[in-house]
Structures are given as C-alpha cells and as structure tokens.
Amino acid sequence: MNPTDPTSSGNEQRQQVARIADAVRRRVLEHTLKHNGGYLSQACSSAELLATLYLRIMRLGPSQAPLTPRPFAGVPAADNPHAFTGADYNGPKAPDLDRFIFSPVHYALVLYSLLIELGRLGPDALDAFNRDGSTVELIGAEHSPGHEVTAGSLAQAISQAGGIALARRLRGEPGRVWVFMSDGEFQEGQTWEAFAALTHHRIGNLGVYIDANAQQCDGAMDEVSTIEPLAERLRAFGAEVHEVDGHDSDALTAAAEGFGNGDRPLAVIARTDPCRGIERMRERAPKLHYVRFKSDAEFKAYEQLLYKMRAQEASANAASHTASSQTTLGHTG
C-alpha cells in the first residue's frame, strides 16, 4: 500500500527516505527563493518524519486525485455537491487503509513538496501556489492536496481525528488514523482535552507523530511557554509515548511497530533540528519560523546553497539508478 517496496531491505528504505527528505528541503528552498519567503525551517525539521510516515508507516492506497490540483469549488455545504477535500491524494477511504490528518497547516508547502516527490502530485503543482481560486494554499485547508480537515486554529485536528478514529472502531474497521502535529500545539488547551478524551474512550487506533523542533513564531519555545516534560505529561494523560530522533527513519518506524491493536493512543515525540540540511539558517536563530531574505547578499548565499543541493541530489539519483540497474542485472544474469 506504500510506495516503498515491502521486499526492500531496511537500508534501501532508509536511503529512499533520505533522498526524498533532501528533495523536499531542496524544493521548499527553491520556492522560498522564488517568492522571497517561506516556511523553510519546517521542511528542515519534518522532512524525514513525513517521508517515513508515507513510505514506511501508513497503509495508504494510490492517489485518487488529479496530478494537477483542482480549483477551489467552495466550502462544504448541504447545497454544494461540488465541494471536496484533499484526502484523495492519500488514496481511497477503505476499511483496511489508514487515514492521515495533517494538523500544522502552515507546513502545507512541505506536504505539497512531499506529495510531488512521491508522484501523488504533478511536478508543476506548485505553479498554482497561493493564487486566487487555487487549492494549493499557503496555509492549507480541507480542500488542499493531502489535507482532509481544516485544522487551524492549531490543535483542532487532533479532536477531529479522535472522532474519526472512534467511528472507525465502532464500525470494526482495522484501518488506523495518523495525525501529524507540531510541538507548539501542546501550548493549546484543546490538545490536552483531546488526549484526555482519547484515553477515556480507549482510542487505540490513533497515532500522533509530533515534530518537536522547539521553535515557534516568537522564537524558542522554552522562552515563550514551555511544554516540557512533554513525554511525562502525555504518559500522565494515559498515552503510549515514544521519544525518538526525528531524523532517524528506523527509530520513527520502530515506534509504530505493532500499533493499532491496543487501547491507548500512541504519541511519538520526534526531536528534530529546524536547521537540518540548511546550516546557514542557524544565523537566524532563534527567529526561524518564517524566512524572508533581508539583503541581496543573503539571497545570493541561499541561491548558491540551492545550486549545491541540486548537484548533490543529481549525483545521489545517478548513484541510486546505477545501483538499481546493477541489482536488476544480477537478478537476470
């Protein structure tokens, strides 16, 4: 059900996640340069996490949506039969397949880039980014590719996902519900109310992956409003909690092994680096939330970095193609 071949080795899966993550960062940097602004640190922190979810953890079918994003057809309403969600980019809804709920919708560009790299969106999909009438929005909504619900204000998605998971359990569906969240959402009371409800109703088919990059709009989270010790707090609410390196695909995958048959929600705290892969961004710390270039010199420095990333990506793709060809020859020889 996933793009990753289930017969491939762990090393091959790790390499695929790494290639996709690097390509996502490169694509988001391209877009940030093109528009002189973008949520770049979010790509740095979450690229491996989201790639691992799609490639190694979630059971998704092939995309049911067009490669070219559809124009906005209006909000969902009883008198609007043309309204749609972006969930069909994650495959069909079926009892045995998983559902994906994307909570921090300011990460939308990261998700669009990932969907392009996975072939679920067309390579030119970002041409419609943030244009009037487009569903490829700066801040994603329920009609945006890969999104199933409108999640902002932050922390609303976990509550909606809990309702979906409960409904699936009542129907006897084996498919799970996965939620991607940012750590800043744990400053919201609704998040904790949702976890209290999940554990009270023994919702064991809902898993949450948290991009814990320790950054928010106003700077470092521990200087704005700390959420730590997050793992202990979630355990106190009754969740099954794992704390892992958010750039380690194997660790991210292992945290979900066997999940879906218990009676507790899963929370995986993925500790991440908001400058991963783009070291120059550390010069901006602690204000990393949104990147807008301050001078021509800074713009050119990031442009040079983009050229380097493109060259590295081309080299890695060529090496991967060569290795794949050699493996094929070995199997047929």
UniProtKB/TrEMBL annotation:
<feature type="domain" description="Transketolase N-terminal">
    <location>
        <begin position="90"/>
        <end position="272"/>
    </location>
</feature>
<dbReference type="InterPro" id="IPR029061">
    <property type="entry name" value="THDP-binding"/>
</dbReference>
<protein>
    <submittedName>
        <fullName>Transketolase</fullName>
    </submittedName>
</protein>
<comment type="similarity">
    <text>Belongs to the transketolase family.</text>
</comment>
<dbReference type="InterPro" id="IPR005474">
    <property type="entry name" value="Transketolase_N"/>
</dbReference>
<keyword id="KW-0786">Thiamine pyrophosphate</keyword>
<dbReference type="Pfam" id="PF00456">
    <property type="entry name" value="Transketolase_N"/>
</dbReference>
